[in-house]
Write a structure and sequence with these properties.
With 351 residues, this protein is mainly alpha-helical. 57% of the residues lie in helices and 2% in strands. The chain has helices at 49-55, 70-97, 100-106, 111-122, 165-184, 191-217, 225-233, 236-251, 258-279, 281-284, 297-329, 335-350, and strands spanning 134-136, 150-152. The chain has a two-stranded antiparallel sheet. The longest helix has 33 residues, at 297-329. The chain is elongated and about 150 Å long. Mean pLDDT is 74; it is low at 39-58, 142-148 and 288-301.
Length: 351
């Protein structure tokens, strides 16, 4: 047999193919830290620059640069100046209408005073005297310079002094109580609180405007007249709150109607009217005859003015208070009528 010839093996082997990686891994680039800056050309250095140079190049962040920045300091100064200017502007505009020191006088109350004052408003029949206590102006504080030679004691030292703490708290309590009673009757709706607050505010506003108009017509002037009238106009809410609570208890959720509601309303109205008649005497009936000689013509004029002022005080204490207290204490127990009234008021506002 003849053996076939074989081809000689190739001189070089074929090249090897290495696998290509599918996920490229990123290796962070390592950089050397920058050289520390010299203090000779840096105005915003840190308090650690000197120590960094001595310690072998340690570099700390510049936390003190913002504080030492003159631009930032200028901005802070401008902001403070603008804040002070705004506060001064607000104080000037507020003091133009209401004196802040005088307003603080009406909120200078204590817990015993509040309790005694509430009892006085509800049971004023046997209280004496009704005149306010005064002290000479030499011992008065700096804000009492508005009075001529005497200043009235604050409410915490004189039960006959009017305050604004009780009227404001009674105003807010009346709104919340009316809303709560409406919810207990099943007649709550979102318009109850707004409608009640609007009614109470309008009543107080009309009352104060009427009093100011009457004092202007009758030529009655008093340094603290406006704030006193605002304070006295809010004491009626104490009687209204008592009327609402007792009527709700006796009438079993049927409102302030019926004999029980009218009985409680009659008592609170008479107590409030008597309280105002006695308390407003020094505001609406200032004693001007003591400075006039007896038997002169001016005494006759003062007496005629005093008669008109007495009539005005009687009408305000009884007639006006009856109307306003009846409006504030009127609570109907029918949910349908309450919702109908609220819907009508909403339609008027929307239209």
């Amino acid at each position: 047999m003849q053996r076939g010839s074989y081809a000689p093996p190739p001189a070089h082997s074929p090249p090897l193919h290495h696998p290509v990686p599918q996920h490229v891994s990123t290796v962070p680039m390592m950089r050397s830290p920058p050289p520390p800056q010299s203090q000779s050309h840096s105005n915003y250095g840190t308090p650690y620059n000197g120590q960094a140079g001595a310690g072998g190049g340690a570099n700390f962040p510049a936390f003190g640069g913002f504080i030492n920045d003159p631009t930032a300091n200028m901005g802070l100064q401008v902001g403070k100046s603008a804040l002070y200017a705004g506060q001064e502007y607000m104080e000037q505009n507020i003091n133009r209408y209401v004196s802040i020191p005088a307003l603080k006088h009406y909120f200078n109350v204590s817990t015993p005073y509040v309790l005694r004052k509430l009892l006085l408003v509800l049971f004023p029949w046997r209280h004496k005297p009704w005149s306010r206590e005064q002290r000479p102006s030499s011992s008065s504080p700096a804000d009492a310079s508005t009075y001529n030679s005497y200043y009235f004691l604050p409410p915490r030292d004189d039960i006959n002094s009017p305050d604004m703490y009780i009227p404001v708290m009674a105003f807010v309590t009346y709104i919340l109580l009316s809303t709560l009673l409406a919810g207990l009757r099943g007649a709550f709706h979102p318009e109850v609180m707004g409608l009640t607050a609007t009614t109470a505010f309008v009543v107080v506003l009309f009352e104060i405007l009427g009093l100011k108009f009457g004092t202007y017509i009758l030529s009655i002037s008093n340094d603290s007249q406006l704030l006193d009238l605002v304070a006295y106009s809010g004491y009626k809410f104490v009687g209204v709150i008592v009327t609402l609570v007792l009527s709700e208890i006796f009438n079993r959720g049927k409102g302030t109607g019926g004999w029980a509601g009218w009985t409680v309303f009659g008592y609170t109205f008479m107590a409030n009217a008597f309280f105002l008649l006695r308390s407003l005497k020094y505001v609406l009936l200032p004693d001007s005859s003591s400075s006039t000689p007896a038997g002169s013509g001016m005494h006759t004029v003062a007496r005629s003015q005093r008669n008109r002022r007495t009539q005005f005080l009687f009408i305000y204490s009884y007639v006006v208070q009856f109307i306003f207290m009846w409006i504030l204490s009127r609570q109907d127990g029918s949910p349908a009528q309450i919702k109908a009234a609220a819907g009508a008021a909403k339609g008027v506002v929307g239209g």
